[in-house]
Amino acid sequence: MTERTESESRKLLGRLRDTMAEEAAGQARLDKITHLTADSMGTEVCSVYLFRDAETLELCATQGLNPDAVHETRMKMGEGLVGRVARTGKIVNTADAPSEPGFRYMAETGEEIYSSFLGVPIQRLGEKLGVLVVQSKQARKFTEDELYALEVVAMVLAEMTELGVFVGEGAALSARHTQPALFRGGTGQEGTAMGRVWLHEPRVVVTNLVADDPVTELARLREAVDKLRVSVDEMLEGASGQGDSDQQDVLEAYRMFANSKGWMRRMEEDISRGLSAEAAVEKEQSQARARMSQVSDAYLRERLHDLDDLSNRLLRILTGQGSQTGSEMPDDPILVARNIGPGELLEYGRKLKGVVLEEGSVGSHAAIVARAWAIPLIIHAERITNEALNGDHIMLDGDQGIVHLRPDDSVVTAFRDKIAMEAKAQERYASIRDTDCVAPDGTRVHLLMNAGLMADLPSLDSSGAEGVGLFRTELQFLIRNHLPGRTELANLYARVLDAAHGKRVVFRTLDIGSDKVLPYMKPQDEPNPALGWRAIRVGLDKPGVLRMQLQALLRAANGRPLSVMFPFVAQYDEFRDARAEMDKAIAREKRLGHPVPDDIDIGAMLETPSLAFASQRFFDEVGFVSIGGNDLKQFFFAADRENERVRRRYDTLNSSFLSLLEQIVDRCRGSQTRLSFCGEDAGRPIEAACMAAIGIDRLSMRPASIGPVKSLIMRTNLTELRQVIHDARDRGEQSVRPAVMAYLADNGWALGRS
Ligand code: PEP
Ligand code: MG
Predict the structure, then answer these.
(1) Relative to the CA of 631, which ligand 1 atom is closest?
(2) Strand order across the beta sheet in which 127-136 lies
C-alpha cells in the first residue's frame, strides 16, 4: 500500500472547498463530500453520521452503502462501532470490524462485506456533532497518515456544520443554534429574567478553512504566534511590576504554551495538509476542549483552559476580530460566560439583567455581586457558551437554576406569567415598604439589609430596610488589584455613611481567607481553608490591615455613630484582642486631634458553635452578636457550604440547629445583648419567620428579600408559630419544616404567595 502524501490531502481539501463554493443544497454537498473522500482515500465506503438529538445518530450521507439507508439508519450513542466513536470521542481503526466488540450488523446498509473500518469523531470545540467513517473490503488497518487525513476532513465538516452549510430536511440537518435549548444548572441567585444573550467572550468566526498556499499560511501563523508571544511577555512584565503572583503563574503557563514546540508543530502539519492558519489553530483548540471534558484533575483542567484562552487570542490576531466583534450590546443583556471575576462583572455595571456561567459557585465573588444587584445568576450551565449566540433570546429561572435558550412560544408564555406574578408580588411589597414589620401578635421584627458595594446603598430606601446589618468590607478589597490605602477606604466608608442618611450601618472588618482570596496577597496553601487562617485570625496575627481599616472607619465616621463587628470570633480572647485594637485606634485618633464617635457599637459575629458556649464574660462585654448562619450551619453540621452535594442535606429548620439558635437567644437575653442573624437564611421567608418566632428579632438579608420576608411575618402569629416549632421538636421530629409548612398552609399561606 502506498503512503498517503500531503499533496493528496491538500488536493482533497481543495476539492472540498470548491464543493462548498458551489450553489447546492445541504444534502447535495454532503453527498459530494462522501464521494470525494472515498475517492481520495481509496475506500469503497465513506459515510457521514450526524446527531439528530443528543442521543441519536443518523446516517446523513454515504458513498458505498445502500443509498436507501440514508436518513433511515439510526443508532444510539454507544451502539455499534459508529456509536462507540460518538460516545468515547475516540477513533476506531480496525482491519476486522465484525469481530470488534460492539459491532452491530445493519442489514439495510449491506455493511457485512466491509472488513476495514476507520471512524473519527466530528467535533467542534469539544462538542460532538457526529462521526465520519470510511470502510473498505480489503482487510487492513489504516495508516497514521490516512487517519490524520480523515481527521482533517472531519474537522472541516465540523466547521461547515457550524456555519450551516449542510442545512436540509430533518432533525439531523437542521440549522444549528436555532433550536430551543434548555440548560439545567444551579442557583447562584434567585429571580427571573428575560433578555438577549451577550457573550462575555464572543466566538471568533472562521470562514476560510482551506487554503491553497501553505507557504503563505505558515508565514501568517508564525507572524501571529510571534505577536502572541510578545503580548504574553508584555502582560507578564505588567503583572510582575504589580507583584501579582497569581496572575503571573497563569501568564507563565500561557508563555509555556505559546512557546510549545509540539503545539506549533501540530499546527504547521495541519497547514501543510491544506488547512488555513485559523483552521489549524481551531483544530488544536477543539482537541484541547475534548480533552478538557475528560480530565478530572482541577489543575490540569485549568491548564487546558489556559490553552483554550491562548487559542482564542491567536484566532483574534489571525482574523482581526477583536474582543469586540462589532455587535452592539442589546438593551436587555444577559451575560453568558464560562466564568467571570467580580471586577470584570462590575465593569458591565447594573445594565445586566442576569448572568449565566458554565462554572462559578454560590459563594464566588461574582455571585456576591449578582446578589448585590439582585439579578438572577445561574451557575454550572454546562456548554452554554458553545450553544448561545449573541442576541439569542434567553430566559433565566434563577429559582430552579434553569436557562431557556431560544425558547418556544409556550415556554415564553408560561414565563411571562411567572414574571407577571412576581411583579404583582413586588407591588404588594412596595405597598408595605414603609410600614414597620410587626407580626399580628405584636412582635416587632427589624429587617436590615446586607451590602458590600457602593452600588448596594440605593436599595436601603427602595427596599425599606431599617439599616445595613452586615456590610462585607472585603468586597472592596476583592474588586481591586491593589491593597486599598487608608484614605481611599476612609473616603469610601464616609460615602457609605452619607448614603445611609443616618440609618445604622454595621461594618464587618475584613473577612478574607477560605474562598475569599485577595488577588494581591499570597494565597496560603492550607489543607482546609474554611477551617484555616481566615477573618479575625488573620486580623489579629497580622494586625497591619485591621488597624488601617479601623482607623479608616473612625475617620469616615468623623464623629457620627459607628458600628463595627469582627468576623469569625471563636472564643472570648479573640473578641477582647480585636476590641483592644479598636481602643488603641480610638486613642490614637484622639491624640491626633481627630473627632471620634461618642456612640461606638462593637460586636462579634457568631459563626462557630464554640462561641455559643463562650464564658458569660463574652456576652457581658460584647456590644452585640450577629449570627453568621452560613458559616455557623456549615460548622454545626460539618458540611461545606460550597459543596452542593452536602450543603442541601441539612435543613436550617433542623430541630437541633434551632435548639442551638434558641440557646444563643437565651444567652443574649440573659446579658441583654442585642442579637441579629445575617446569613443567607434570613432572606428566606419561612426560615426568617421561624427565627423571628424563636426570638431573633433583627434579621439582615439581601435587599430583594425584605419584601417577601416582611409580607410573611406581618401575616404570621409568631407566638403560635413558636409553639408549633416547640411541639414538633418535642415530638422528636428531625426537622420542624413539615409542621411549620402545615401551620402556614392552614393559615392561608401558599407557596409562591409570600
Ligand atoms: C455568614 O457566614 O453567615 C456570613 C454572613 O458571612 P459570609 O457569608 O460573608 O461568610
Ligand atoms: Mg461568615
Answers:
(1) 2
(2) 74-76, 56-63, 45-51, 127-136, 116-124, 92-94
The residue contributing the CA closest to ligand 1 atom 9 is 472
The residue written with cell numbers 429559582 in the block is 399
List ligand 1's pocket residues with C-beta within 6 A: 470, 472, 511, 607, 628-631, 678-679
Over residues 18-32, the pLDDT tens digits come to 887 788 888 999 999
Which of the four CATH numbers 1.10.260.40, 3.40.525.10, 3.40.50.620, 3.20.20.60 does domain 432-746 have?
A: 3.20.20.60
Tell me the average pLDDT across 634-663.
Answer: 91
CATH topology of domain 6-173: Beta-Lactamase (3.30.450)
Distance 679 CA to ligand 1 centre (A): 6
The 10s digit of each residue's pLDDT in 338-392 is 888 766 787 787 899 999 999 887 766 677 778 778 899 999 998 899 889 889 9
Spacing, Cα 686 to ligand 1 middle (Å): 19
β-pairing verdict for 127-136 and 393-397? unpaired
274: left (phi over 0), alpha (psi -120 to 50) or beta: left
User: Could you give the residue numbers annotated as active site?
Assistant: 365, 678
Write the CB contacts of 272 (distance below 8 Å, at least 6 apart in sequence).
6, 10, 214, 218
Q: What is the pTM of this model?
A: 0.69
Given a contact cutoff of 8 angstroms between Cβ atoms, the answer to whether 242 and 482 are in contact is yes
CATH top-level class of 181-202+325-421: alpha beta
**Per-residue pLDDT, 242:** 58
Which of 471, 566, 625, 678 to mutate to test ligand 1, by most ligand atoms within 8 A of the CB atom? 678
- The residue-averaged pLDDT of 218-237 equals 88
